Amino acid sequence: QVLRKSLQRGLVLSTGSFLVFEAHKLIFGFAEVHASFKVEEVIEQADYLYGSGETEKLYRLLVQHKNSDDAELLWRLARASRDLAQLSSTSAEEKRRLAYEALECAKKALEKNEANFAAHKWYGICLSDVGDFEGIKTKIGNAIVIKEHFQRAIELNPKDATTIHLIGIWCYSFAEMPWYQRKIAATLFATPPTSTFQEALRYFHMAEEADPNFYSKNLLFLGKTYLKLNNKKMALLWLSKAKEYPAHTEEDKQV
């Protein structure tokens, strides 16, 4: 159950490839596995490690391919860099470095293949992360670009529940934006971006329809949004689901 849930946004490693991977680890040691493998095999290894929650091993595998021209490798490296930055054991200085590294990898993935939905998704995520280091003005200034990349990702893959959820988060954030941030937005845009809790709710429900019970945070935000709309009965329903969601990750525990 844990493996199934954690692999929902990746590819399931075939039994044959898994055995080959394990054999190479035993014979050559993990650090040398990548040398004789094709891109497809590195991707299979990466997806297995991602599904297993092996964040540091995944990063070490993929960072060796940072000069690759393959968008599938590059967006996975962006994700791995970001995941490593999220670990509590990662220093503040290293978090910053990894955030910018992740953004560069996602940007390069887009340059190599504009039609790759995951590259758009992770570029939007990483651009938002960098805003945390550059201040609220930059974060708001990047908001429209971020949403455009999420929307493009959905155009390319309408069934990707995570991206739909992210647009919901975008809408929720602008719906509850405090007045002083609205003033900043007004100085940056002729027509500042706005949204409503109703719009956020629509995206959270769309994400749930695309992949039911896929993400504890989507359940949480369904509950929070219903609270904002003063519908306590529906809020209780979704918050209860979030509370009962099996905590497989650190984020699930926080939810």
Automatic annotation (TrEMBL):
Positions of transmembrane segments: none
Alphabetized InterPro entries for the sequence: RMD1-3_a_helical_rpt, TPR-like_helical_dom_sf
Pfam families: RMD1-3
GO cellular component: mitochondrion; mitotic spindle pole; spindle microtubule
Keywords: Cytoplasm, Cytoskeleton, Repeat, TPR repeat
One MF term in the entry's GO annotations: microtubule binding
Main location: cytoplasm
Subcellular location: Cytoplasm, Cytoskeleton
Similarity comment: Belongs to the RMDN family.
Subunit details: Interacts with microtubules.
Name of the featured protein: Regulator of microtubule dynamics protein 1
Natural source organism: Nipponia nippon
